[in-house]
Amino acid sequence: MISVAEALDQLFALVTPLPAEDVPLTQANGRVLASDVTAMRNQPPFAASAMDGYAVSRTLIKPGQTYEVIGEAAAGHRWDGTVGPAQAVRIFTGAPLPDGADHVIIQENITRDGNAITLDASANDKPHVRPAGADFHAGDVIKAPRLLAPSDIALLAAMNIATVPVTHRPIVAIIATGDELVQPGETPNDDQIIASNSYGLAALLANLGAHPRLLPIARDTTASLELAFDLAADADLIVTIGGASVGDHDLVGQVAQAKGMDRSFYKVAMRPGKPLMAGRMGNAAMVGLPGNPVSAMVCGHIFIAPLIRKMLGLGQTSAPRETHPLAKDAPRNGPREHYMRAHISTNGVTIFDRQDSALLSVLAEANCLAVRPINDPARKTGDAIDIIRL
Ligand SMILES: Nc1nc2c(c(=O)[nH]1)N[C@H]1C(S)=C(S)[C@@H](COP(=O)(O)OP(=O)(O)OC[C@H]3O[C@@H](n4cnc5c(N)ncnc54)[C@H](O)[C@@H]3O)O[C@H]1N2
Ligand code: MOO
Fold first, then answer.
1. What is the pTM of this model?
2. In terms of residue numbers, what domain contains 385?
3. What's residue 302's pLDDT?
4. N- to C-terminal Cα distance for the chain?
5. How many helices (H) and strands (E) does the chain have?
6. Closest listed residue to residue 15, CA positions, set 297, 264, 273
7. Do you find a cis peptide bond into 96, omega within 30 degrees of 0?
8. Is 274 in the pocket of ligand 2 (CB under 6 A)?
9. Interface predicted TM-score of the whole assembly (ipTM), two decimals
10. Are 158 and 24 in a shared domain?
11. Which entry of 83, 104, 132, 151 is 20 to 30 Å from 69 by CA?
12. Are residues 58 and 123 part of one domain?
């Protein structure tokens, strides 16, 4: 059995970053910027007022000074003219500052009488002027790769970038396998259960920026599995769930290899997730996940998520870890790296007692996985432990 780190290295070797496509700005959120983009303009393009008030030259500013109001500048409507030393232009937030003015006195700090304003004691607080290019300049660059968030979308819009180069979303075919499975919403017979981890994985993949495609459940027959692989042929990544172990009905590896899968590895020294397999299949990478619901989800976080990030152009990194103190003693670990459902709070990390890989309810209670190295001895409250947030 290979280690988790070796398995991840071999998985990374199966995929390359996907090509770029241009999308409208409205579809760029959550996508990965594929190449650097450059601002088309300065923001603001002119020195602008930051407040509602009066634009003046700062030369005469002092309490009691009076000015004659000679015009008005609003956002989108500059005042064309030059402001003299004892003159003021009524100005509103976002309006271009007129020539001759370098200061805005907020309207709360003056008294107005007809066309005359008089400054009160706190007139000279700050200039309230946003210099041209204060936010960014034409030619400023947003570097790729970058996972675009709403704040980036606002910045791209301000830069007048209406079409954004992003990495293609990896298409991931998800094949749940097993005679015992029906889809949520269907009526199972007495021996059946509902396919669950396929839906959890689809949600995880969508959150990562991939395009999950849930295929019909494959039955435990060669013909049904072959058909499922045929339906998945155009995917970037094929993920099977179940049928990976050593039972008489565990046919996934066999059928995949008959379909031309070039296997990289089978079995990883981890818990849960031991019967993991991976390889190349046609133009796609193929990962065979163990069927136990929690095993499939844990492998999703530990292996599939880093693979998707690499395909999106975000580099080759394992799931990020943090180190925190234990809030409760933890028993010794065995010969496989153990990813244990746990809860982290300000008190530290509490590893749950029940770790059977069939228990999705325990996974749903967890907000992290505590990582126990191979043969880690028993740990005491307060000892440091690595976690991966869920
Ligand atoms: N003799 C051995 N038996 C098992 C071993 C072993 O080493 N020797 N390994 C165990 C481990 S560890 C795991 S994990 C499972 C993995 O087996 P498979 O990948 O072949 O999975 P299945 O047998 O198809 O299913 C296991 C379990 O999970 C349920 N399942 C499967 N798919 C789904 C799904 N999409 N949604 C919800 N539940 C699913 C299935 O009904 C089974 O209960 O093998 C152990 N056995
Ligand atoms: O490794 Mo299995 O994935 O323990 O449940």
1. 0.92
2. 322-389
3. 98
4. 26
5. 8, 28
6. 264
7. no
8. yes
9. 0.96
10. yes
11. 132
12. yes
